[in-house]
Amino acid sequence: MWIALSDPANGSHFHPSGLGARPDAPQAIETGPDALLPRGSLVIETRLPSISRPQPLLTYDRGGYVPMHLSLQALPGGGLVFVLDQDGEMLHGAISAAETGRADILRVTYSWDAPARWGRLSLERPEGNVVQMVDVAQPKPLPVSDIRALTAGQGPTRAAPEVLFVAVSTEIEPVGPMPSLTPATPVATPTGYRPAGELRRGDVVRCANGQDVPVLQRIERVVPAAGSFRPLVLRAPYFDLAADIEIASFQRVVLRGSVVEYMFGTEAVLVPAAHLAGVSAAAVMAPGRAPLVRYVQLLLPGHEALVAAGTCVESLFIGRVRRNAERLSASLLAGYDRSRLPEHARPVHRVLPAYEATVLAETRAA
C-alpha cells in the first residue's frame, strides 16, 4: 500500500490509510510521534545528471535525540551512492549506473523488513530490464514522522530538480519487468477487442503478425502516477489508432512502414512512448489526476507484439529472468513456476534510442 508521494507536478501526498483511500477508511499505519514503519519500500526516481563532481540528488537531515540522515548522491561516470544513518548505525550502498547502460532515468528502490532482519537496495532503468541489487543486513524501521517529512519536500529535505518523485509503500515493492498498459486498453483477440485488464492466462490474443497466441500470464501493479509511471495518451488517428489509449511512458510502441525501412533498414522498430511526448501524437497527462495508477501487461511465448486499438505495442519483455533466481524472486513473476516462463533472448524488434525515436515520431506525425 502506497502511503506517501512527493511529485513536483502534483505536490506532496501522505495518507495513513493509503493514497487514494476514502476519507473514512481506517488507518493502515500508526501515526503517533514514536510510530515506526517496520516493513516497506522507499522508491526514488531521478534523472541522471551529466556531472564532473559529486552532486546530491536527495538529502534529508534531522537532528535531535535520535538523529537521521538519508541521502542519494550522483557520482561522475554514472555512479549512485545511497546513505541511511539512523542514530549512528549507517547503511551505505554504492551502485554503478554505468553497468546498466546509457540511461536518462533511473529508479532506486530501498526495501526493508526489520523483523526479518533483511533489506535490499535496487537500481533499475524504467525502459529496460537491467536490475542491480545489493542485500542489506539488519535494516532498522523508519520513523513515520521522517517518512512524512521526507515526502513533504520541506524542512530538512532537499531535492535536486532531477528528482522526479519520491514514494513510500508499506510493502516490499517488486523490481524488474513492469506492466505498462492501463486496464481499459483494447487488445485484439480472435473474437474482437477486449480490455487488457480482462484477459487471463489461457486466453488467446491476435498479434501484430496475424498469429493467434495464448496469454501465459497477466501481471498488474498499482504505482504512483509520477515520473516514468505517469500515463501518456497516444491520440487517434496517429499510428493507426482507432481510439486514444493511455500507457506508461516506458511502454514501447511498434512503428513500421516505408519511412522506417528507409531510415533504419528494417521493417519495424520499437519506440518508448516517452520519446513521443514532444510530438503531437502523445502528451503527458495533465496534473491533478489520482496519485496512483494501475497498469497491466500480458506475457506471451515469443514476445510477440500486441494490437491495441489499431496500433502495435510491445508485450511484456522478461529477457532471461528465469535463469536468475534472485532477480526472479524480486520481480512481479515471483511465485510462478520457472520452468513455465519463456525466455526472450532479445526484443522482437530493434529499440531506437531517444534521438532516432524522436526524429522518426516527428516524421510519422507530420
By DSSP (H or I, 4+ residues per run), the number of helices equals: 4
Please tell me the total number of domains: 2
CATH topology of the largest domain: Endonuclease - Pi-scei, Chain A, domain 1
Q: What's the helical proportion of residues?
A: under 10%
Uncertain stretches of 5 or more adjacent residues: none
The end-to-end span amounts to 43 Å
Number of strands: 28
Q: For the report, how would you describe the main beta sheet?
A: 7 strands, antiparallel
CATH class designation of the largest domain = Mainly Beta
Query: Radius of gyration in whole Å, from Cα?
Result: 21 Å
Strand content: 35-45%
Question: Which shape, going by the Cα principal axes?
Answer: globular
Secondary structural class: mainly beta
Tell me the CATH architecture of the largest domain. Answer: Beta Complex
CATH superfamily of the largest domain, called what? Answer: Hedgehog/Intein (Hint) domain
Strand neighbour order, sheet with most strands: 2-1-14-4-9-10-11
Let me know the average pLDDT. Answer: 89
